Amino acid sequence: MAGLEGQTLGGCRIIKRLGAGGMGQVYLAEQIRLGREVAVKVVRPPRSGGDDAPALADAPERFKLEARAIAALEHPNILPVHEFGIERELMYLVMPLMPDGSLFDAMRPGGPKRRLSLPISPVQAAPLIFQAASALEYAHQHNIIHRDVKPENFLIRVGRDDQIEVFLADFGLVKEYHPGSNTSTLAVGTADYVAPEQIEGRPVPASDQYALAVMTYELLAGQLPFRGAVAEVALKHLREEPPPPRSINPAIPAEIEQVILRALRKKPQDRWPSIKEYAHAYSEVLKKLDQRQHGGKKSIEDETTQHIPPGPLPARPAARGKAPVPPPSAYETQAVPQTPPSAGRARQAAPQQARPAHNPAPANGGAPHSSPAAPPPQAPQPYPPPSHTPATPQPPTWGAPPWNAAPPNGAPAAPAGWPGAPSSPLPPTGQASGKSGLPWLKIAIAALAIVVIGIILGVLLALHPGGRNGGGPSQKPPTPLPTRRLPPGPPVGAPPGASFAAYSHATGTLEVVVWSRPGQRDANNA
Prior knowledge:
- The chain has ten helices and 13 strands.
- With 526 residues, it is of the alpha+beta class.
- Among the domains are: 1-97, Phosphorylase Kinase, domain 1; 102-293, Transferase(Phosphotransferase), domain 1 (Orthogonal Bundle), CATH 1.10.510; 482-526.
- The longest helix has 26 residues, at 438-463.
């Protein structure tokens, strides 16, 4: 197949060739529609008249079926396929570009992308094996066998912390596997990693486990189990047992060697039940080796919760002018002596004595202890029996002593100018404070105020118009009776002593007028 540089294939402009294999070539290309760099793998068509023409006659149809199956595999360690198709009799796959190369490039001595110096330790190889086994197990769950597991078909990506991510690629030889099928195929694959049953044309999922075990052998021992020509190596895979890896690299643990040799057995049913079980067994051995290396210590998942008793409590901060108070030790019960009634008042009147400083320095100049120690328990001191002689009551002390005066019982006095210092000390318990009559005085003043307010309200109501009628407006006078105005003299023809009713507008009352004699009248209220 001639070079494709400068041509357009599948919407990608081919830039240069990156590598070639038995089934085709890989090119660096630019995806025109998205403007990104991609890798395009081109599978060569069957050559007419060639030896492989009968075998590759149905290659286009197989390529379509296998490409669709690969596109359905979505796994973090499987290289995805952006696009595939056939154009100008060229079958192509468009994949992401992996500039860090393949795992083979990282292993190849003297290569520009070498990152691994073989042999490597089992711990260093563990992430590579686990990622590869996870991708292959996922493909097996979807009935796909890779059939070409080797370092060249694992592309890598190196992170900022130099951790290597592995991506399974190159599914050109994949085969759909159906359990119970006895269909045989051509012996395809790479002779250095091919399983015996795959050489015979009967690949199964355990064939990929065999190839991954050969990769593990190479990483830990630094070389392949069989070397020679292609036919010679294939024959050894069929008939000979691989040499133990420890015979090449004695630093390999014996348990790891047994895990690898079981995966390299000739019959598929004698290997691990699945490639996932192979990786799990490898991991369990590493865990046991790690526990053995650390003196039999258990991992954090296996440790039980232990009860740690609490340590001594920290000392309480000391007040100004006083020594710090030592805390009691954990789970220690201290005896508290009973205070006799006779000494209670004296104790309340006298301030508490300052306690000695906690954890003093040793007398010989040594360093003090780092952790506070509890004071030794003391037996309670018996108090003397109360005296039968009654104590003479002391009169209350009026007038405050000076603040700087020494308090009783030799207690330290407060410094001068202390902010918020009281103007006078509190009187001892049982003495009069001189302010016991203050509540009664307040009650008397309140009662007097209520009386004064009542008098003022009564005067205001008395002076208000219409106050006698409950504060309402004045009532209108009653409707006068139909009477006539009182004449200035007796009516004409009125006999002496006659009387009649009349209404007086001056007083607003009904009057009865009796004429006793001429020129005089007597008025009475009705």
